[in-house]
Amino acid sequence: MDMTDLVLRHHRTLLVVFLLSAFLFALFGLRRISINSDLTNLADKFDQNYKEQIGFLSEKLSSNILVVLAYTDGNIEKAKRAVELLKERFEESGYVSETLKMDNPELFVKYGFLGLDSEVLRRVQNAFDFGEGSFLDFSQWRNLFASLSMLNELAEEYINRKGIEQYILLSPDQRLILINFALNSSVSDVNAIYQAVAGLRNTAKEVSKATGVRFAFTGTPAGVYESNNQVQRDFAITSIVSLSGISLIVYLGYGSLSVLLCLFLSMVVGMCMTLGLAGLLVGEINIVTSFVNAMVLGLGIDYGIHVMTRIAEYSRFKDLREGIKEALSELLKPSLIALLTTVGAFSSMYLGLSRPFVQMATFSIIGMICFYLTMMLFLPSMLLSLRIRPVEHEKLTFLRRLFSMSRSRRFALVVSAVLIAFIPLGALNLKEYWYTPPGLVAKRAESAMAFAELKKSFQRVGFGEICVVAEDLEELHRLDQLLKSSDLFIPPLSVLSLMEFSKFDGNGSAQNLYASLSEMVNNPFLLAVFKRIGMYPQILDMLRLLKGSKDLNDVLSELQKDVPLFFYQRAGHTMYVLYTDTTKDLYKDNRLKIVHNFVTENGVKSFGTPMILYMIMEDMRKSMYSVIFLTVCGIFFMLLLSVRSLKASLWITVGVLASIVGTFGAGSLLNIRTTFMTLLSVPLLLGLGVDSFIHMRHAVLRNDETHTYRTFKSVFLSIITTIAAFGSFSTAQGQLLREFGVLMGIGFVMCFFTTALLSFHVLGGEDRENSDVH
């Protein structure tokens, strides 16, 4: 029993089975879908280099510390009271393990306190050194009392730091108050972090409403929340916009409400089955699969358009049952070939790409199969069971003019000229691979804007995205000078920065430092101050440490306990870390490639998110070119088996490739570069572009102008609905996804006109094939 007989004999059973399956799959499958926006998922977790990079990232640069900013708006005391209330509410929420006090050395380094003038304390110390015969020098006494007054103010300020004062920092420009919260969940638990930040954001909104003080979140947890929120939003919005746009185009194309409702219900059934099965088999939505549902909607409706057009065509002169039989018999083979080429294109992603792309391939293949079965079985079964005879009321009147024009010589010359003009531009675009794709998170995200405010008020914040590791102190000095002498980087931050701040000579002995500190502590005036502010025990501990130290390594070992981020332990060996950033935006003008080349040429071992991103982009580049080559070979072989013509197979393959290269040429005019995401469009356009050629070739070889026009209309509507699906990506927050959608839209337009060119002016002269091909 073939598909046609199955529909004609068991249409009511099929209707119930599909509706029930869609409900059950959606009910159980959607519950299993989670959101995972972690960029490191793009990396190969089994590769040793990636393991080392991700391990360093989680140890040194990622943390579960949520940074909250309160805007003073000129009223510092009001902002402090609001932060105190926020702290109480956060600690009661169950999401916060502790509020960090501002007595951690790393926090002082992180918020730019190495920028303070260390000479102030030296001038205070020198004020107590009376020269011989100067005891009655009143100018020195004035300096002494001024210094004592300043020390007293510092002591009073330190002593008075109690309550909320112990947990906050007021920026030097008095615009911001900063407070740090450690969350209960590990930053690797993306879902738990998302829920925690979502709950704390609601609490912050309540406190803000009650006090009138504005709050902003930044830090790793805030970034995780926004990335997950973006993926979730993009998934929902692109799906809704895609479904709405496709429905509008279907109505304009057929001018029939009954046709629209049938296709709309079929799309919903196909989408529910796809999401349900994807939830069961894939289990999560990530930064790559966030747009797949919208894409599958645009591709899957193509089968429904071809089925509905054929049924409407044959039902005009025949009984509905006979019309469905004729339509399915004619479409079975070309639609199956189109499905196999599309599945083949997506299957190529299994060859060497990372887990998210494998998930994308699985998601897409599930979707294409579900939509194929829905449109070939459920849609005609619904028409037959409800006795709906599809009719067409032509609303897109320009299609007939476009059909006539596409068969003219002028059309062939214009399309050929456009392709010839764009292909060289496309080749140049494809030649230059960009390692710095547009950001996956919108630049106006709250955490990004809050961090910019933080840097503006505290000057230097954080340690730097780029981390360089030195094996020993000699190497540390070399790398420090190398980075400082380069115009690519800002001055690095390392343990050398602490030494420079304290004026400690790294080449000197620990005994010299001991003598200097001992002299300061034995001064009776300073001794009283140190005892009053509670620093005396810590200084005595430092003196005991220094007195027993044999060399600088003992001092560094103690320093490692206070500021561990400046040290990196691996295989029992302690190394030194330098933190830096680029002087210009790292993610513009392909600077990531320039930075990577610099550190590689100078034999520098580097870590951090930029280095992981470069490795991912490089792996994607190598994998994509292999995938594209295998996809071309696979599609050409499949065409040979299906159309049984070497000439036609070559022309179709070359035509699709020419339209893809031309697409990148048109994209270059819009400043769309060749990135890992835009390269993903190549195997997709290869698989999807061939579909139109297959349908048009079969129609042209029948030598029936009416049938050819209807196929032309079906192909046009299929292309437009697919463009609408990818056009929905323009509503996404991430620029990377928006550019991908624009490029795919250009690609489908190119494929449509190339299809018309080859179908009417190249392949139209072929001998008519045997009927079994159809």
TrEMBL record:
Keywords: Cell membrane, Membrane, Transmembrane, Transmembrane helix. It comes from the Bacteria. The chain crosses the membrane at residues 12-30, 235-254, 261-281, 287-311, 331-351, 357-379, 411-430, 623-643, 650-670, 676-694, 715-734, 740-763. It is a multi-pass membrane protein. Residues 167-385, 608-754 form the Membrane transport protein MMPL domain. SUPFAM superfamilies: Multidrug efflux transporter AcrB transmembrane domain. This is RND transporter. GO terms for cellular component: plasma membrane. It is found in: Cell membrane.
